[in-house]
Amino acid sequence: MAMGSSRALLILSNFKFKPTVSFSSSSSSSKSFPSFIRNNFRTRNFSAETSSSLQPPDLPRLAETARISLAPNEVEEFAPKIRQVVGWFGQLQAVDLDNVEPAIRADTEGDNLREDVPETFENKEALIASVPSYKEPYIKVPKVLNKE
Amino acid sequence: MFHLDDCWKAVKVSKFQSFSAQFQSPSTNKQGEFFMCMISYLKRNGVLYCTMKSSQSQTATQEKHQPPKIKVPQHALKKTVDKITRDYEAIIGIETHVQLSTLTKAFCSCPYNYGSQPNTSICPICMGLPGALPVLNSKVIEFAVKLGLALNCKLSLNSKFDRKQYFYPDLPKGYQISQFDIPIATGGYVDLDLPLEFGGGHRKFGITRVHMEEDAGKLLHSGNGAQVDLNRAGVPLLEIVSEPDMRTGIEAAEYAAELQRVVRYLGISNGNMQEGSLRCDVNVSIRPIGQSEFGTKVEIKNLNSFSSINRAIDFEISRQALLLSEGQGDQIVQETRLWEEGAQKTITMRKKEGLSDYRYFPEPDLPEVILTQEYVDSILKSLPELPEMKRRRYENMGLSMQDVLFLANDMNVAEYFDATLSSGADLKLAANWIMGDIAAYMKNEKLSINEIKLTPKELAELIASIKGGTISGKIGKEILFELLAKGGTVKGLIEEKDLVQIVDPVEIGKIIDKVISENPKQLEQYRGGKTKLQGFFAGQVMKLSKGKANPGLLNKILLEKLNAKS
Lengths: 148, 566
Description:
The complex is a heterodimer of chains A (148) and B (566).
Chain A: H1 4-11, H2 35-43, H3 59-65, H4 72-89, E1 113-114, H5 124-129, E2 134-135, E3 138-142
Antiparallel strand pairs in A: 2-3
Chain B: H1 4-14, H2 16-24, E1 35-38, E2 41-42, E3 47-48, E4 51-54, H3 74-86, E5 88-99, H4 124-127, E6 136-137, H5 138-150, E7 154-155, E8 158-159, E9 162-165, E10 175-178, E11 185-193, E12 202-214, E13 218-222, E14 225-229, E15 236-242, H6 249-266, E16 278-288, E17 298-303, H7 306-325, E18 336-340, E19 345-348, E20 361-362, E21 369-370, H8 373-382, H9 387-397, H10 401-409, H11 411-422, H12 427-445, H13 456-467, H14 473-486, H15 490-497, H16 505-518, H17 520-527, H18 534-544, H19 551-564
Helix pairs in contact in B: 1-3, 6-7, 9-10, 11-12, 11-13, 13-14, 16-18, 16-19, 18-19
EC number (chain A): 6.3.5.-
Keywords (chain A): ATP-binding, Chloroplast, Ligase, Mitochondrion, Nucleotide-binding, Plastid, Protein biosynthesis
Family (chain A): Belongs to the GatC family.
């Protein structure tokens, strides 16, 4: 199955990932994605932003909920870019869907099911070893007050 | 103005009857919860106190006697609270999470066992490690369909999973796989009967939806940090959302109890609130009677038992009603409150800023969930007799509502009862034995009905033996205990202990003669007017006959002989 979500992240390649809950781990790294993707993005000729009824997102709030930190200049810089992306997808609004049944999902196969048979994962030690802060038998985490 | 605490005391006091009755009622007394309420009545100033003791929880839930701040007669307080709440209608809805008793988790093959060592049942999938992909457990669909059908829902033959995204330490992937806009089941209802001590009555409550999702891990707070155990992460849940049809705390508690009954009957969960396999969050709002707009909705969490559901809702209704009646309705805000078992009240959680944005989108890693009509039909055929059907069947057989509610509450008890009947036992007698002596034995020895040694067949035999006169009722009760503890057959015990009832009048007469001749003094007293001594003679005859004399015959012949010579 395609990991559709990770592709979306590639597009917003320039953002730094900085979780506000600070784990002392190496998981928060900013990757430098191949520059050709960026270039492709910038030189692509977007068709005129359709006067779509799609609202541009409240960027600071969106960044907060996604735990991505943006400096004010970055907010200013990215807001129009994101609007353009949304507008670009907004072209789909032009399609006449009057005679089309809404599909629940894009794929056509169903059912990839598994029998209810227990299997112990063999290398649990490696899993535990990869935990940044582990105090037997628990995973240590900072105190978080608000469940979002 | 009355202090809220005093009003609440009055409400509690006036409801103590319901409390103590409630915890004796089989339909609401669950899983070892034990709550005693003692009242000491101070005659001098006519104020009632309530002391409550719970033997279950670690934190002391014992309320000490509190000197009243305002010495107001109890009935006045009670009347005021009742009067205030009577002007309002409460609208209650419940969200229930049922932890499924599958052998493996929802999306990976890790086993789940409640109480195992932390972080021992984990794998890359339920830990949310990069590259791991979820694969749905087919049993989850089966259990979801079973529940949807049992709750009279419409099943969506095509549904999907969605990602509910938020950050929290017990949520490894940063999102929960759930079902957002196309759940597997919608538009159902439950039928139930309210316990008699609350006025009885039939109720029907709507079910908005049932959907599949996965559980998060367990987060334990400690010191200035916290600890996470991922054993539970990925365990399958079914979320049941009710229509806001309940109007009182007891209706809500019974709704939850019925859900527990249903999931246990279906065998999809052990539905244990104390263990967390059945969790309820309640939404309460009130509005003046006659108003069509809803009031502000308040969510209550941390409800660990059916009685907490009942009490928390009643408290919250009173709290909101008092505020509204004092013109402080704006103090009721949409928020989440926690039920404090010790203080017996709801308190504000830390206020959230704004509504959560979960950014739902279809889970790209899971295919559509497709059900065929044949599959659904085959599951429908395999459903056991559900609690509501059983209750109606027992009612039609002629049992009283009280008997019906008791016998249908626990599926195993109902099965035992049905088996006893099919061995030929008399309906009412079977019900009485099970609800009376057998239930008492189970409670004392802390056994379930599957663990007692008396089989339904032997119970039927016991009932027949007494009914047919082979043994007396008293003897029957005596050997019951042995049958429960050690098993064996009724016929065998009767023979072994020589318990056959004596029904030959001549033989009884001989024993009576002997007793009379051995007690001349009492005979004289009897004939002198002390007719109460008949009991003494009867007792002696019973003793001599080792309890085998038929009581009816005994007394008849005894009376004849005692009155003969005078």
